[in-house]
Write a structure and sequence with these properties.
It is a single chain. Helix content is 32%, strand content 25%. It has helices spanning 36-51, 78-85, 88-100, 138-143, 155-165, 174-177; strands at 16-26, 57-65, 68-75, 105-115, 127-132. The relative contact order is 0.16.
Length: 181
């Protein structure tokens, strides 16, 4: 029997980067007018990001599922990601979602800073997450969720709060600690 060769590769080291997971969960499957526009907005934003490398997106992959889609994105930095969030295409979609209440679809994202701290004075890299109109998911399912308040409305605020906590992480909720998911 001929031997097969396993080709192993890795990435070149970087000081830091940001991994951004985002997705849509369809809540009103039989009412596509309530959620199709969210999908269309995702497609337009993906096209904008792919057409302009200067925006800071390194790579993106779309993973469809039965009730929605998950997108895995790799960014040059958290700053580039947050700058994109303020661009007109994203801002308009976000404002529409908030205005219409998002009844047709849940939206979520999780931001993970990898490597060196990306903010001046930060002791370590951070992470943040938000879930709208959907059950606990991903990191929220693993660690539990708390309501958004005045101090956690913006991603930047959630990142700063996590960085400030340092290594003192809260205990995992019973559902995560006992191994159930």
């Amino acid at each position: 029997m001929p031997q097969t060769q396993v080709v192993r590769t890795t990435t070149e080291p970087r000081e830091s980067l940001t991994v951004f997971l985002l997705g849509v969960r369809v809540n009103a499957l039989l009412r596509p007018r309530r959620w199709m526009w969210v999908n269309a907005a995702f497609v337009r934003m993906d096209a904008e990001l792919r057409s302009d490398p200067a925006l800071g997106l390194l790579h993106s992959r779309v993973l469809p599922s039965a009730r929605g889609v998950t997108v895995v994105q790799y960014w040059e930095s958290t700053r580039a990601l947050l700058d994109y969030a303020r661009r007109p295409l994203h801002s308009a979609a976000w404002q529409r979602y908030l205005r219409e209440g998002g009844a047709g679809a849940g939206v979520w994202h999780e931001t993970y800073e990898v490597g060196a701290p990306q903010s001046e004075g930060a002791a370590h890299a951070g992470y943040e997450a938000v879930y709208l109109n959907m059950p606990a998911h991903g990191l929220g399912r693993a660690l539990g969720t708390v309501p958004i308040d005045r101090g956690t409305r913006r991603a930047l605020d959630r990142l700063a709060r996590r960085r400030a906590r340092g290594a003192a992480a809260p205990a995992a909720p019973a559902s995560a600690a006992d191994g159930t998911r």
